[in-house]
Amino acid sequence: MKKLKIIILFLLSVALFNSCLVEDETDLDQNSEGPNLVAFEQSSTTVAGIANGDEYYFEFKIKIIGPTSMDLTSNVDAVIGFDESSTAVEGTHFRIEDENITLTKDGNYLGTIGVTMTTQGIEAPLDKSPVLKLKVLEASGASNVLASGKTLNVTMNFACFSDLEGEYEVTMIRDGGAPVYYTDYITETGIGEYRTTEVGHWIGGLGVGTPGYTFYDNCNVITVPGQNLVDYYSNWVEGTQPGSVDPETGVIHIVYSITSTWSSEYDCTYVPVEK
Q1: Residue 9 zone, left/alpha/beta (φ > 0; ψ -120 to 50; rest)
Q2: Rounded to whole angstroms, how far apart are CA atoms 187 and 269?
Q3: Which residue spans of the chain are classified as CATH 2.60.40.2030?
Q4: What pLDDT digit, counting tens, does each position of 49-108 carry?
Q5: Which residue of 55, 83, 110, 214 is surrounded by the most CB atoms within 10 Å?
Q6: Following CA atoms 173, 177, 182, 184 in sequence, which dihedral angle do they give, to the nearest 10 degrees?
Q7: CATH number for the 36-159 domain, one of 3.30.470.20, 2.60.120.260, 2.60.40.2030, 3.10.290.10?
């Protein structure tokens, strides 16, 4: 009798195990039949333009994603718009150039839509950068393709004219100690975006990574965003207070820290070299 009970329990266990496997297969089958989505490639990004009346054109990538996207054959048409929660105002801050887009199999169901950032009548700096929340409103052409409900949040930075690229004589004071003097070259890497050649007390570079550190000039106010040391080491470089640019002399003042198992603050004054 004892042996019979053991055999019965064993058979019940096998049956239960098999029933679990069947349920898992059913779920997988259902997932493979779910809808495909027309969506933006990114969830957030930042664009910038000088607020001088000019317009700036940007493109954002769209694609079809989903369990059976590779099996699609027909064209898919999508309508692009923006979410009502956007703080950017149509006609004031932006204009959507491509509200309709067709994604094709030959194009691997990839595409771009264009948005123009408008600066006419904008006086920088703004108290807060407006955000445009782009959205796929409609999708048609295939029964198993839907519009994604997720937005692409585009932060729009309206900047003042900035021209800080050049050679500078630098006075650096580390943690209140004796000043150190050296020559640095600042390179413009974007609208209001710059990169120094030197960073911290390693004058001459560290031999790896991207030399220097990145900072931003927004209407003569300097900010140093958090970043890894030379984009390589885990040491954290970040501004500790707003910096400044003297519009008359071009002198730049930046205070930033480098933090690891230790922490140091660097107070730097950049005096432009006469060209």
Answers
A1: alpha
A2: 16
A3: 36-159
A4: 999 999 999 999 999 999 998 899 999 999 999 999 999 999 999 999 989 999 999 999
A5: 214
A6: -30
A7: 2.60.40.2030
What span, in angstroms and rounded, lies between the C-alpha atoms of 144 and 148? 12
Residue 271 token pair: 């005096």
| pLDDT digit string, tens, across residues 123-158 | 998 999 999 999 999 999 998 999 998 999 999 999
Q: Range with the lowest mean pLDDT among 22-36, 120-134, 204-218?
A: 22-36
Neighbours of 244 (CB within 10 A): 14
**Six token digits for residue 274:** 């006469």
Angle at 225 between CA 223 and CA 219, to 5 degrees: 25
Residue with tokens 């002198």: 251
HSE toward the beta carbon, residue 185, CA cutoff 13 A? 6
Count of other CB atoms within 10 angstroms of residue 220 = 15
Q: Report pTM.
A: 0.72
pLDDT at position 32: 55
